[in-house]
Amino acid sequence: MTAPEPHRFVARVVEESSNKIHEDDVARQYGFSGALVPGVELFARTTTPLVAAWGVEWLSRGRVDLRFRRPTYDGDELLVEPADGALTVSAPSGEVRCVGSAGLSADHPDLSGYGFVPPPADLVADPVVGPMGSVSEAGTAERNDWYLAAIGEPLPLYRQESVVHPGLLLRLVNELLMRNVALGPWIHTSSDCRFLGVARLPVELTAHGVVTGVGRRGRHDEVRYDALVLAGDEPVLQVRHTALYRLNAV
């Protein structure tokens, strides 16, 4: 099996986000120099060399975890360096932006704790430990093509084989938080992912979630939750996800 090779890409803020931390004026209120590139889009392009090396086999049973360590801004050039199972994403200066690991196989996670929960009638101010309201969206070739262009994904596999990009699957995991909690500006900080199957278009995508912890990180409020994404009735992704859901301005 081919080993993943280093890969360069340009980070992009994808228009469409309702999270104001991805806008210059708001991000500066929290001490950043400009709009932050979403963690999910950094994740999406970090998968490029993994899929280039391992293809749909990795998308059906592989694993990847990524932790976002330093701010990344629109237009930043980044280098993904896979080495002996580790991942590092860094700027030309050598500053490390993300760290993690990846592999072609992973232990199958326990999926017994997931199930459909009706969306909440009202968004809550603070998440609480327990089930989250499920979310669904139509996976279409048109939306997939839009996303591939928006993030600058170079691999032809997604169009040729009608495969949903993993970034879109992780976006649905973000939607769990956004459709359950009343959010201001917030920051996705890490994702630990297990792929369970390949999502092929067209398909209805559904995510179920369970909040596992709520606390503080520095001056910000943090939430941890587990999520399962289904393509139709088939599990395709399980994630341990963390985010700073309430930021305190500097």
Write a concise keyword list for the protein shown above.
250 residues; 36% strand; Thiol Ester Dehydrase, Chain A; 10-stranded antiparallel beta sheet; alpha+beta
Description of the structure:
With 250 residues, this protein is an alpha+beta fold. It has a single domain (7-246), classed as Thiol Ester Dehydrase, Chain A (Roll). The chain is built from six helices and ten strands. A ten-stranded antiparallel beta sheet has the order 1-3-4-5-2-7-10-9-8-6. Helix 2 runs antiparallel to helix 6 (166-178).
Structural class per helix/strand content?
alpha+beta
The termini sit apart by: 48 Å
Q: What fraction of the residues are assigned to beta strands by DSSP?
A: 35-45%
Shape: globular
Compute the number of structural domains.
Answer: 1
Secondary-structure blueprint of this entry?
Elements: E1 7-10, H1 24-29, H2 39-46, H3 48-61, E2 63-68, E3 77-83, E4 86-90, E5 96-103, E6 130-139, H4 141-151, H5 157-160, H6 166-178, E7 187-195, E8 203-217, E9 220-231, E10 234-246
Antiparallel strand pairs: 1-3, 2-5, 2-7, 3-4, 4-5, 6-8, 7-10, 8-9, 9-10
